[in-house]
Every structure is written in C-alpha cells, then in structure tokens.
C-alpha cells in the first residue's frame, strides 16, 4: 500500500505499527506476550494507574549504562592519542538530585548553567570540584556562590565576567580556574562550517578577540586560565562540524601557548540521538574516535602538545532513557485538501502536550509514538498526536503511524523524551507538571514529584490561607 499523501517524505509506512525500533526506544523497553509495553520491567498499565498520566518514565539502567559508555568511549580514544579527557554531563538536558548522583557514580563531572542547577547538584552531594559553571549572564550572586562553593571551573562568556569572577575569587581568597568560551564560526545546523569568524549569537567571545581576553585573564592573579571552550550546536549527527571546530580551536590554542599555559581544551557537546526511525546518528564510539584523530592531527600540524580534553554530552546520555506516557482523550478524522483531492489526517488528542514537551512547537522537532497498553492488527493509519492546550501548534508528534483502531482511553507512548522535555516543562493553561518515575528491574519509584493543582494555587497571593490573608492586589 502506498504511503499516505500527508506523510512527510522521510516517514515510511510500517509493516507493523506496533514494532519498537531499538534505536529510538530505551534499552529495557519491550512488549509482553499480550502486547503491553513494559519499561524497565514495569508494565505501562501499572505505571499509569499508580502515577497517572502524562508521566515521564526514566529507565535508570539505560541512563546509567549510557553515561558509563560515553565516558569509556572518550577516555579510550583520547588515551589512544596520549591524553586524557573529562566528561561533563550537561545538566540542562535533565537534572534532579538522583540524576546528579548517577552521573557522579558513573565517573562523570557535571556542567551546570544557573544557580538553581548548581543548588541541585550540591544538594545531591556532588563534589563542587567536579562541577563546571556555564551561562552567558551569570549574576553576581551566582558567581559568588559558585566561587564560594569551590566549583572546579567557571566558563567565562564575556569580558565583563573576567573582573566579576576575579573579584569573587579575591574576596574568598582562592585562585579560581576558568575557561574562555569562544565562537569558532562553525555552525553544525546549517553545515556552513567555516562561514564566519564572528558568529551572530549571544554566547562567547569572537575568535579575533579571544587572545586579548586571555591576556586579561592571565593578568589577574586570582584567576587560573585552563583553556578554551566551544559549542557548535545541538542534535548533531556527524563529526564534520566538530572536526572543523577543532581545527580553529587548535590554531588559537597554539597561539595562546606562546604566552603562557593552556593545559585544556573543551570541545562542548551537542551529540545527536535518533527520535524517529529515519534518524541516523553517529555511534558515540565512532564520534569519539573522529574527534581524537582530529585533535591529534591538528596538534602535530602545529607542533604543540596534545592538551587535556573535555566534552559535555547531555542528550546522548539521558535522551533515549525516557518515555512519556499519555492517555488518549479524543480521536478525530480531519479531511485535508491536497493536490486537488482530499486525504484524512487522524488527530489523536492526549492529556498532555506542549506543557510537558515544547520541543515540537519550539523547534519543529519530530517524535515517534506507539500504542502502549495493547497491540493491534488494524491497518496502520497516519496520525498526528496533539496536546490539550489552547494553541494550534500544540503538537506532540507531527506524523507517525498507529494502528487504525486507536481509540479514546488507549495509552500511547512517546520515546526519547529524556532531554529538554521535563527541563522545559511549564504550567501553560495551568496544567500541573508531570512526575518523573525511575524504573529498574521491575520496580518503579518517583524521583521528581508531580505537581498538583494545590501546588499551583499555593503561589497565588490572591488566595487566603490559614495565617495569611489574600492580598487583593495590594502591595
């Protein structure tokens, strides 16, 4: 049977609309003989009954093993060229105290980008010296707390921050290690890898200005310059952008070595994952090998020692681990005009949406979907999974195939929601943010409590409570 005319070109009509692509789903996702989806050994019906929907279900064994594999791959490949590497988990992808503990236990450091993320990592017991602090507009209070806490390194994002961090270090009587974020002009999304020396973005220092900034850092006795940092984008499937960035970074790195030490080089993150069966992400071992070879070649070309390296993966560690469960509310067949004829798009409306996954609305991101509570032999039908918010752009899955008999009260599952879904969640339309439940070896436990309507109302100053009168708008 031909593909639906409304289907995007990349989406193939499946032979079995119940099948789980192992490249997209967490490693411990499987169906029982009856067809129910199990995650980490726990059935989705049990999860939905115990915790409600929408529900983020995080496969703990999956995320722990991926963290160890990423660290192992980079350490192995950089040891091959005679150096070492520090792997930072990019906490912005998803962070809670349990996640921080898992990353530290797996041998990773943690990259935080706000005072709140710093507070969570410290509350989890993460050693401050294993934290890196990012951000393009760190407040004076955030800088002071980071320095006072003993964070291992602060990434300087602007010339203004040099003096601010130096003053905080002087005040606390320490010499603070710092890196300088630079814009290499390499942008992975457009593949204009060598487009410009002055990238138009809010982060970092332009390459032509970097040497002057490093000289200023080195002039401050309260600061210790570790090296450069760069980040070229997100959800990157190949190595070409990284190797182009390495060439530019190593050129500047060699220049800086003429006037002082620069023992490290941080290549950033942005390593991609499959969200659909059409996505073809480079295996992390291959990516690590390509980066190691690029660094070694550029160091040899310029006659400089290979520096200590750092990378900052986030999505590639936590993204595939998590599946979001929804319950279907309505099913609606919409007749769409196309090429002089008509076609049917089946809208599946669920009990969540852009409040728990804004990425499709924000970036046009594509996801996959499967029936979770059962399987069906019905013919595959093209569906669009929509949320319940008052926005036409509130789409969870733009296009995928489900069995044509999908119906209200069905459970559906959207895989690969571990990165930037909970982190970007909101209370739009006053929906409470869902809980995050970790599953492992047949057991489930809450690691982030879901919100209730009472939680939402508790912040409303216009509601009278015991011991507190309503403000009625008065200051």
Describe the structure.
This protein has helices at residues 44-51, 60-80, 97-105, 115-123, 140-149, 159-172, 207-218, 240-256, 284-302, 315-318, 359-363, 453-457, and strands spanning 29-31, 37-39, 42-43, 55-59, 85-90, 109-112, 131-133, 153-156, 176-183, 205-206, 223-229, 264-266, 308-311, 322-338, 341-350, 370-371, 380-386, 395-403, 411-415, 436-440, 443-448. With 475 residues, the protein is an alpha/beta fold. Strands 4, 14, 15, 16, 17, 18, 19, 20 and 21 form a 9-stranded mixed sheet that branches. Strand 1 and strand 2 (37-39) form a beta hairpin. Helix 2 packs parallel to helix 9, helix 5 (140-149) packs across helix 6 and helix 8 runs parallel beside helix 9. The model is unreliable at 190-197 (pLDDT under 50).
Summary tags:
single chain; 475 residues; alpha/beta; Lyase, Ornithine Decarboxylase, Chain A, domain 1; TIM Barrel; 9-stranded mixed β-sheet; 8-stranded parallel β-barrel; 12 helices; 21 strands; globular
